[in-house]
Amino acid sequence: MQSDCDIILDSITEGVFTVDREWRITSFNRAAEKITGIPRSRAIGQPCKDILRADICEGRCTLAETIRTGEPIICKRVTLIDVNGQQKPINITTALLKDGEGNIIGGVETFRDLSRIEQLRKEILQKYKVADIISRSHRMREIFTILPGIAQSSSTVLIEGESGTGKELVARALHSMSLRKNRPFIAVNCGALPDTLLESELFGYKAGAFTDAKTDKPGRFALAEGGTLLLDEIGDVSPAMQVRLLRFLQEKVYDPLGSVQPVRGNVRVVAATNKDLAQLVRDGSFREDLYYRINIVKLEVPPLRDRMEDIPLLVDHFIERFNSLQGKNIAGITENALACLMAYRFPGNVRELENIIERAFVLCHTGLIELALLPPGIYQAPVTGEPPTDQFSFRQMEATFLMNALRRNNWNRKKTAEDLDIHKTTLFRKIKALGLKLPLR
Amino acid sequence: MLPLLDVPISFLNIYPDISLQVMCVFLPYTVAGTGHAFTGDVKTRLAIPVWRETVSTVFDFSQSLLLIDTQGNREISRREVSLPDEPAPQRASRLDRLGVQVLVCGAISQSLARFVTQSDILLVPFVSGPIDEVLAAYLCGRLADFRFLQPGSPPAARRRWRRGRGPRGQ
Fold first, then answer.
1. What part of B 21-50 touches A (C-beta under 8 Å)?
2. Tag placement on chain B: N or C end, fewer CB within 10 Å?
3. What is the ipTM for the molecules in this complex?
4. Which pLDDT tens digit goes with each residue over A308-340?
5. Which residues in chain A have Cβ-Cβ distances shorter than 8 Å to B17?
């Protein structure tokens, strides 16, 4: 005959079992039977490690930790092997079990099967992933759509975008989708090298070209032969170097330092910059003919603040990556912390987000990334006139989302309403209700 | 090296989609309740994943492996090696490199079981209990005793035990 407690436990979707001080299972609910595949009749009285069969059972038991410290462990992500020999990701929460007098009589473990969530997450990631770029924003999706076509051609590509937006990833994606994918991909940061060094780095030199040149050295163009060469920060290249690059782009030949014979190269050039090259041309610091040579196909990678919908995807991606790299078990991020990230403007773009998650990993070992683990200064109160609080409410998140959308559309409310696919009256009503203060136009 | 025999052993399959290749020899006597065994003349390297002097619950997550050289029903030597966290193919090839011929273990994932059996290692899964008792039972063919059956084992394994056949390979 089932007790009321058993009936309640059987009605919930999370697996629950309790153990006594000898680690023997004393109760085992229906969801636990379903997740492990082991019937209750066989589980009761057995050591919990023989039933749960998780990667933490030997040496890293969370229940033992909870009983030792008295502290519950929440949402630790682990893997178990079910009765059919399938690995299942689950997250577990442990707590102490006490009698009426407060004596510890064992522990209780609740666990949730994440297999379906994992599968869906993988499907979603697959849908929003091209090469190593993850995005669901419509602007990035447009890039994803045209990327394969551009990759198949051998035209020079110009990638513009702020620092940290992933220009090199786009260049690598272009290379990996092209017919040159089995040949080298070489990236050169033109801004990091002085002009004289950049010339020898790019084009190489012959023995005797200068005092210490004892042997021939191939340049990056030679190393990238048959493949793709990314010239990052092309806007920082000196006028003299621009002429040499122009020659290669026009005639496909270059002169190594000290060489009397020009060398023909089969290299696809992808140029990237975080500057507005058209503006540099107008200012006279960038050659117009070179600009038109590299601006055959232009891809503009939007900054992260213009694709805030990517933040949850990217956060999940970085958590998974750092879990794997650092052997940790961070289950995710709290809603407050995520809302806080959604409200931030990310001047350093995706790279800054990656660094924020990496920092949280240094401070956090298990469970969820909390608001307190984000760097000070990330939290930015929306302009609602309300004092900031530790709890990030839905109202504040909505206000921040609308402010970002308005900012993105240059404070034009009609455009913003169209962008958000809502009626402009709805937008006006929300602006008023949230008390948003917009700049005077 | 022991002779290899491809045996259609669907009746032995605990995980139905794994086609097993069992390494065995048919010689003057067999270990009780089986059709095949390692004989008194043949040296065999047995591996048992170990945790606190008992068979480790899940081989996929084990951190330590006991290697035991046996001859017939006698133990010749033993040593313990540590196992790093590694994917299934690497773990199976590690066994291969260590010269393991028989793996007696607790639970094992389907994927790792597939890699282990593909490496021509005789797999004896779903065993639990203190190492010395398990080893003694293995050497004299008494692993079919119900007390060595892991509580969380699949129904097919339980049926074998109930029939007194014990784990595969025994």
1. none
2. N
3. 0.74
4. 889 998 998 899 888 877 777 788 888 888 888
5. none
